[in-house]
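Letters spell out the chain; backbone shape is given numerically. Both lines appear below:
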Amino acid sequence: MMKIYHKILMLLVVLCAQVNMMMAQEVKPEVVPDVWGTYEGEATTELFNRTSETKTPSGKKKMVIEISKGERLFTVFTLKDVTIGQYNFSSIPFKDCFLLPNNNKWNIDAYNNLDDEVTTKDKKYKVWLSGSIDKEKSFVDKDGNLELSFFLSFKEDSHIQYEFKGKKKSNPTGIDHVNADKKTPVVFDLQGRRVSKVGKGVYIVNGKKVVF
């Protein structure tokens, strides 16, 4: 009986060791709050027809993309004020994205593709949109650079390919992170004096330096 007990105990120890080894070897996504915020830039667009397999350049568009914290370990990439065909959308979110460390930047990997019904800006229509992010061409870094390669489609026979390059807005959204927790930020100047109105310069916001 004791021999059987010891064998079971040893088996459990081996199984636990294997599970820990697998978890250690697994590539885990890294969420980097420093990159959260609003990015402004320009996207080169191209219309791809699946039926004829032809690509037609359709110019460049100014775009705004917001990076924010999602549920669990996900990061959300939200396209702001986007027009597709005759429809205009105030926001189109890629919800289930990971930030994967790669040297001094983070590749953007969409765990689930966009496949959802999105309401138009005027609230008149609900349009089923699909889309995907190319993680090999999409990254963000701590210097405020964002490159996002993705496509959007609302028709079966075609989609629009976007190649976005942008920079994080110069006015940081550090206070917004505090507001997200529904707390009033405490702001001091570098001399330690509490201020109620913030102008251009460096301030201490809840113990952290923030540039405005």
